[in-house]
Amino acid sequence: MSNTTSSGGGQLPRQVADAYVDALVELDPITGTFLGVAESSGRLPDFSPTGQEAVAQLARRTLEKLTEAEAREGGDSPAERRCARLLRERLTSELAVHEAGEGLRAVSNLSSPLHHVRDVFTVTPTDTDEDWAAIARRLRAVPDALEGYRASLDSGLKQELPAGPRQVATVIGQLDEWIGTDRSWFAEFTDPGPKLLRDELTEAAAVATGALVELRDWFRDTYAPAVEGAPDVVGRERYGRLARYYNGADLDLDEAYAYGWSEFHRLLAEMRAEAGKILPEAKSPWEALAWLDEHGEAIEGVEETRQWLQSLMDEAIDALDGTHFELAERVRRVESRIAPPGTAAAPYYTEPSLDFSRPGRTWLPTMGETRFPAYDLVSTWYHEGVPGHHLQLAQWAHVADSLSRYQTTVGGVSANAEGWALYAERLMDELGFLTNAERRLGYLDAQMLRAIRVIIDIGMHLELEIPADSPFHPGERWTPALAQEFLAGHSSRPADYVESEVIRYQGMAGQAIGYKLGERVWLRGREAARARHGADFDLKSWHMAALSQGSLGLDDLLSEISAL
């Protein structure tokens, strides 16, 4: 790495940050696997209260070292200052969440220790017999990992920190699907393993599956009855703390709620205009989108859709590289994949390992479908793939040696990344890539989803009043049921997707607002930089400079990219 020790000896902030990454990988082998650390492949973390406290103690020690590093010669240089700001903000936010006991009630349909255990297998190397032997060891580690998770949830019950009942019911259903009726997800995952290890992998998969069964039964028979009647919303105090964690900023939640409504009204007007070009007699944009489901451009077949999405990203890279971005060869590589069964309904992205031995990948959950309307995929893959998540997170990995591994990996701020990906959708619209009314209406529908997320995520968790100018239940106060009804009536998504979305918001309070609020920061930063440079403003240079700064919370992001 290019980070250097100051002339006075001791570590500078970037070195403190990277030492934290090394220590974290020892405690959290799942993080190690995502970073491409081969030694992590056969292990899983300790999710018990003791394991959680070990991670917290590491954060506390790191903050002490950071204070010392900032005071050293060179500790206040621009590169060191950016890293120090991120490290302090992230660790402080994480400690606030830990100390409030959020890790003792971590049940979610998308992101929890349970999901991390399953998902890490999809990015664990499988190229050699040694890789598969490590997978067998990791499979045998599943029972202890899930037992630790269960111990944390049990501790939460004792401290009157329950998870939401709706999250619990959903996770029980997910576990049923992963366990299967004939063969489990783990059994199917090990099918491509080498014949030499077939017996070992089969037995290890059975051990891991048995742990899923035990956890499912405990959730059903013990935990679910214990949390019955607990709220599915978090309230203002918890929401503010969680929103800080996901957004890297102390937000004015009432202003953000009002902003969500202003975007709703703006987007609704644009959607009506585009829908009129497709189906002039449509009573609403979603009637036109429903018509497109049957009569619009679509791709038939799961594998055909995967290939189509790959070509969409490849074409975007060829068109954008050299014009609006300057991409290294290894950043140009991205893979389209089909998501394993039992995931949440939304597509997602996994970043490359630091050495790029594992490329960035987009994942499409099929939800049992074999036909996929194009309007619903194009802007989504601009978001998940290119120029969205892939260009940002792969560029971070590409410049990790000139920043710090912390800034480009575990220090990621959700709203920064999701805001960039939503900005990327808008950029492709600005550049004319949405070539017909179908695709542009799909893009606007995706934007509308993100505006509604701000409204209902804040609205239902804070139980706010619906404004008088709302077309939906004006004057009433938000509930999860109203949130689901509102999203269903203002979205092209099917009912199971809508339900999965609202359950996601309940289990990850404060995360879903980061898309729109993050996009607003990226747009404001671009306009501030444009105003500074005037006619000399170069969008390609600004994009690459902004993407090469690594992670920052929203407050720090705005100041940094405005000054580029």
UniProtKB/TrEMBL annotation:
InterPro entries: DUF885. PANTHER family: DUF885 DOMAIN-CONTAINING PROTEIN, GLR0591 PROTEIN. This is DUF885 domain-containing protein. The lineage of its organism: Bacteria, Bacillati, Actinomycetota, Actinomycetes, Kitasatosporales. It holds the Pfam family DUF885. It comes from the Bacteria.
